[in-house]
Design goal:
The chain is elongated, with a radius of gyration of 33 Å. The N and C termini lie far apart (73 Å). A hairpin with a 2-residue loop joins strand 18 and strand 19. The protein contains three helices and 20 strands. By secondary structure, it is α+β, with helices and mostly antiparallel strands. It has a ten-stranded antiparallel barrel with strand order 2-3-7-8-10-11-12-18-19-20. Strands 1-9 form a two-stranded antiparallel sheet. A two-stranded parallel sheet has the order 13-16. It is 16% helix and 57% strand.
Length: 407
C-alpha cells in the first residue's frame, strides 16, 4: 500500500509540473505577442509621424505626397565624360609657337539597376553593361527644401584626339592639324562631385517630383535655389612611356584640383496635364576656392635650340649632366631615340585662384498614373581649372530612364 501511495503522489507531482510548464509557455507566448504588437505600434506611429511631417511641409494644391511611401524603381543609365587638356608651347629651335590640346573620351558608361526606398531616401544598385568605361558610383537624397548628390567616376584610357595650331613667329603663318592616336601608356582620370542645394519655395515647387518621384507636382511652380558644390579631380599620365608629352607639357605629369563653388539658380516645374511634370533647372556657380597642384618631372631633355654639333656625349645620372657639362639636351636632337633619357621629381607647383565659372544644368520629365510612374532625367556639369602652363576642362553628363511602382 505504501508503494502504491508513493506512485500516486509522484504522478500527481508530474501532472502539476506539466501544468505549470504549460501555463508558463502560455504566459511567454502572450508576452511575446504583446511585445511584437508594441513594436508594430511604434513602427506605425513613426511612419505616421514621417508621413504627416512630409505632408505638412508642402502645399497640397501644388504638391501631392502619395499615401504609399515605398517605391521600387528600375533604371537604365548612361554617363559620359570628356576631358580636354590644353597647353601652349614655345619652340625656340624652330621659332614657332604651338597651341595644342589632348581630348580623352572614355566609352559611355551604360548600366541597369534598381532603387528601393522610403520617400526620398533609399538604396540603389546598378550593373555596368560597358567594358573599359571605368567605375562610377552615385548617391542622392531629396526633401521638400533640400537636395544632395554625390558622384564618383574613375577611368583610364589610351585613346586620344590631338589637335594643334602651329604659328611661325617670324612670318605669322599658321597651320592646324588633327589626329586620333593611342597614348603609349594609359591616362588616369578621377572626379568626385558633391552638390547640395536649398529650395526657397519648397512648399509649392519640388525637384524631387521630376527626379525621383517621391512626390507629385500638381500645378506649375518655380523657385529660386542656392547651391554649393565641392569638386575634386586628378589627371595623371605619370608613366615614363609618356615622356614626350611631359617634356612638351613643361614637365607636368599629374594635376590635382580641389574646388568649392557657390551658385544661385532657378528651377521650374511645368505641369501641362495631370500627372505630367517637366522640370528645367540652371545654376551657374562661381568658385570661391580653387587649388591646383601640378606635379612635375625634370628631365635631361628640353625644348631649347638645336646645337649645330652634337657634342653632348654620354649622360651622367649622378651629376645629372652630359659629358660637355650641360644639364639639358635639345629634344629635337633625340631623333626619336632617347636611350639615355633620365628624369626625376622636382618641387610641385601649387596655384590658388578664384572666380572660375562653372555650370549645373538639369532636365527632368516624369509621368504618374495610379501607383506607377516613368521618368527621364539628364544632368550636365562643366568644370575647368588652369595654372600658368596648362588648362583642363572636364565635361560630365548623365541621363537615365526609370520605371517605378509605389507600395
Amino acid at each position: 500500500m505504501n508503494m502504491v501511495r508513493i506512485i500516486i503522489i509522484c504522478c500527481l507531482l508530474c501532472s502539476l509540473n506539466a501544468a505549470a510548464q504549460g501555463q508558463q509557455e502560455t504566459t511567454d507566448s502572450v508576452s511575446t505577442q504583446k511585445s511584437e504588437s508594441g513594436l508594430m505600434v511604434r513602427l506605425r506611429q513613426l511612419q505616421q509621424y514621417l508621413d504627416n511631417k512630409a505632408k505638412a511641409a508642402v502645399d497640397p494644391q501644388y504638391i501631392e505626397v502619395p499615401d504609399k511611401p515605398w517605391r521600387v524603381i528600375l533604371r537604365y543609365k548612361e554617363n559620359a565624360v570628356d576631358v580636354d587638356y590644353s597647353q601652349s608651347v614655345d619652340i625656340p629651335a624652330t621659332n614657332e609657337h604651338s597651341d595644342w590640346h589632348l581630348c580623352f573620351e572614355p566609352p559611355v558608361a551604360s548600366s541597369v539597376g534598381f532603387w528601393v526606398g522610403y520617400r526620398g531616401t533609399g538604396f540603389a544598385y546598378s550593373k555596368s553593361l560597358t567594358k573599359n568605361a571605368g567605375r562610377y558610383y552615385s548617391f542622392s537624397s531629396t526633401g521638400a527644401k533640400y537636395g544632395f548628390n554625390f558622384r564618383l567616376r574613375r577611368f583610364n584610357t589610351q585613346d586620344a584626339k590631338f589637335s594643334s595650331t602651329d604659328r611661325d613667329i617670324e612670318t605669322g603663318t599658321e597651320e592646324r592639324s588633327d589626329a586620333d592616336f593611342t597614348m603609349p601608356s594609359p591616362v588616369w582620370i578621377r572626379s568626385v562631385y558633391i552638390n547640395g542645394y536649398y529650395v526657397f519655395n519648397g512648399r509649392r515647387y519640388s525637384q524631387a517630383a521630376a527626379y525621383n518621384q517621391s512626390v507629385i507636382q500638381r500645378r506649375s511652380a518655380g523657385s529660386l535655389l542656392v547651391g554649393a558644390t565641392w569638386y575634386q579631380s586628378s589627371f595623371d599620365y605619370a608613366d615614363i612611356q609618356n615622356a614626350v608629352f611631359m617634356i612638351v607639357g613643361h614637365g607636368v605629369y599629374r594635376a590635382k584640383v580641389h574646388q568649392a563653388n557657390l551658385g544661385v539658380g532657378y528651377g521650374y516645374n511645368w505641369v501641362p496635364l495631370r500627372g505630367l511634370t517637366v522640370n528645367v533647372m540652371a545654376m551657374p556657380t562661381v568658385s570661391v576656392y580653387n587649388r591646383v597642384k601640378a606635379y612635375k618631372y625634370d628631365t635631361n631633355y628640353d625644348l631649347s635650340a638645336v646645337t649645330p654639333v652634337d657634342d653632348y656625349g654620354d649622360w651622367n645620372p649622378e651629376t645629372r649632366t652630359w659629358a660637355n657639362g650641360k644639364s639639358h639636351k635639345p629634344l629635337l636632337m633625340a631623333n626619336g631615340v632617347m636611350s639615355q633619357f633620365d628624369y626625376w621629381d622636382i618641387e610641385p607647383e601649387v596655384d590658388h585662384s578664384m572666380f572660375r565659372l562653372n555650370l549645373d544644368l538639369r532636365l527632368g520629365i516624369a509621368y504618374n498614373w495610379s501607383n506607377f510612374f516613368i521618368g527621364a532625367q539628364a544632368q550636365y556639369n562643366n568644370f575647368n581649372y588652369k595654372n600658368d602652363e596648362c588648362k583642363i576642362n572636364i565635361y560630365d553628363a548623365y541621363a537615365h530612364l526609370s520605371f517605378g511602382v509605389r507600395l
